[in-house]
Structure formats: C-alpha cells, structure tokens
Amino acid sequence: MKLLPLTPDGQTPVRVLTIAGTDSGGGAGIQADSRTMALCGVHACVAVAAVTVQNSVGVSGFHEIPPETVAAQVRCVVDDIGVGAAKTGMLASTAIIEAVAAVCTEVGIGRDQPVPLVVDPVCASMHGDPLLHAEALDAVRNTLIPIATVVTPNLDEIRLITGIDVVDDATARRAAEALHALGAQWSIVKGGHLRTSASSTDLLFDGDRFLEFSSPRIDTGNDHGGGDTLAAAIASALAHGWSVPDAVAFGKEWVTKCLEASYDLGAGHGPVSPLWRLRHP
Ligand SMILES: Nc1ncnc2c1ncn2[C@@H]1O[C@H](COP(=O)(O)OP(=O)(O)O)[C@@H](O)[C@H]1O
Ligand SMILES: Cc1ncc(COP(=O)(O)OP(=O)(O)O)c(N)n1
Asked: Where would I find the Pyridoxamine kinase/Phosphomethylpyrimidine kinase domain in this sequence (predicted)?
C-alpha cells in the first residue's frame, strides 16, 4: 500500500489533533487514535473529552471533562503547535459537543475552514454500552455533523442519527445522502457491520458522486477500535494535504492491515493493531 511520507529525523512532522475519550483497555478512543497517528508518521495532539472505565468486555462508566476544559485543550494546541487536521470521537454530552463545535469554528477547524475535521460520531461501544447521552443525538445532528469535512458513522450510529436501517447498497446510499443533508461535506457509510458479503465495502458521498472502497472481509472477532483507527488514518492523510477520496482509500487499506494484525486481549474483543507498521520495510 502507499504509505504517508515520513518526516526525516529531527524535523517537525505534520500534527493531527484528536478530541475524544480515553479507553483504559487501550483498544479504542484516544489510545487507538494516538497509536494510529504515530504509526502513520504524524504527531498526535490530544484533547480529552471523557475518561472511560473500559476493558475488552465493555464500558462500565465514564467521567466527562468540563466542556470549557475540552475547548481550552483545543485552543491551546492550535495556538501554539498548529494542526493540519483534526478528528472527533467520543464527546459524551450536548454541552461538550457545543463547546467543541464553537472552539473548532473559532480556531479554523471544520468544513470550509483551513483545517479539515473528521467526525466519528461515537454513540456506543461495540458491546452496546453508551458513550453518548441519548439527549445529545440532536447536537450530533444539528451542531457536530454540520461542521464535518468527513463524517464516519457505523451502521448502529447511522440508525440512531438518521433512522435508516442499512441492509444493502440502496439503503447505504440513502444513509449517505441523509448524512450529507445534515451538513457533512463528505459522508462515509462503513460496511464493517454488514456481514452479508465476502467483502467489506465503505461508501463515500459528496452530494454528487458515490465512491466505493472495498477490502476482503477479515475473519476476526478482534475488531475493537476499528472505527477510530479508520478515522484517525483518514485525518492523518488529510493533514498531509491529501484529497478526501485519497485519504479514505488510505484509511481503508490501513484499517484492513490493522484488522489482519489484530490480536486476542482479555476475555472479549481484542484490538485492531497498527503494529504491523513496525515490521514494514
Ligand atoms: N471483518 C472486517 N473485514 C474487513 N474490514 C472490516 C471488517 N470489520 C470492519 N471493517 C472495516 O473497518 C472499518 C471500521 O468499520 P466498523 O467496524 O463498521 O466501525 P466501528 O468500529 O465504528 O464499528 C471500516 O473501514 C470497515 O469497512
Ligand atoms: C473512548 C472510546 N471511544 C470510542 C469507542 C468506540 O470505538 P470504535 O473504534 O468506534 O468502535 P468499536 O471498537 O466499539 O467497534 C470506544 N469503545 N471507546
């Protein structure tokens, strides 16, 4: 696969900011984002929005960071370090979503702004444990998705956000259109949870063109953090100035390699792993 260019030793690499929740089990959230970004060769800056109590079998609770502290992390990183792209993950509440949207607009992050924003509208873990208060879905629809350069929901999140049950290509296209109508510049419908074919296809839509990104379906139960890994890889490529279709093609190939390298951890779902990159020549 075509990898992102590495910055020579001693020079400052491209920076990407993740605004998300932590995962104490290290499989998803900010841990997956930072690991992905580091192995993509970019410097990860982090704004913590929530701390989850999480392992391979589920999420037993979370603690929200005050919205003004989340916004202050974003502002101080952008003011001093500067970022080429940003990504949101678990934001937990309406108040945090509103604070993040406001500070992103203030500092020039988001669609039609200098710094592109990948929005992974995290609602729940793969175990079904909530990572977003139900009342915050309106803020996801009306405040967060409208500032997305790219939005990357999984099928469960699409059902919650749009009411559309994606079961085939026609419903996937309808969902991509609905997400675009909410204000995202590009929408992705991820096919990871559509287990009806031998391939896993993600659909990308910009209001005009549908583009498909397919990979063979990897037979693994260790897919924790897959959505974060895809979105973080896309953000890393966008920070290098790649177009959205090229960044999504990169992210799709990247997450496929990470699924192939996934490993057992704990009694539940192990993580997808970017550690294959360390063995790549
Ligand atoms: N078994 C699989 N084989 C190949 N690709 C997969 C598989 N499961 C998920 N993917 C890919 O991983 C990425 C994350 O998808 P998904 O699992 O739907 O997200 P999430 O982790 O948010 O639930 C997508 O690019 C999807 O196509
Ligand atoms: C803190 C935190 N953020 C996000 C997730 C969900 O991760 P994601 O990669 O979207 O999907 P799954 O691994 O749950 O399929 C999380 N669990 N924790």
From this structure: 23-272
Ligand 2 pocket test: which of 122, 161, 272 has the largest number of ligand atoms within 8 Å of its C-beta? 122
Structural domains of the chain in order of their starting residue, each with its CATH number = 15-274 (3.40.1190.20)
Q: Could you write out the DSSP letters of every residue in 148-187?
A: -SEE---HHHHHHHH-----SHHHHHHHHHHHHHTT-SEE
For helices 155-162 and 169-181, the axis angle rounded to 10 degrees is 60
Quote the CA–CA distance of 259 and 254 in Å, as a whole number: 9
Q: What's the confidence (pLDDT) of residue 96?
A: 98
Q: Work out which ligand 1 atom sits closest to the CA atom of 193.
A: 18
Residue 197 is predicted with a pLDDT of 75
Alpha-carbon span 187 to 205, nearest angstrom: 5
Where does the pLDDT of residue 281 fall: very low under 50, low under 70, confident under 90, or very high at 90 and above?
low
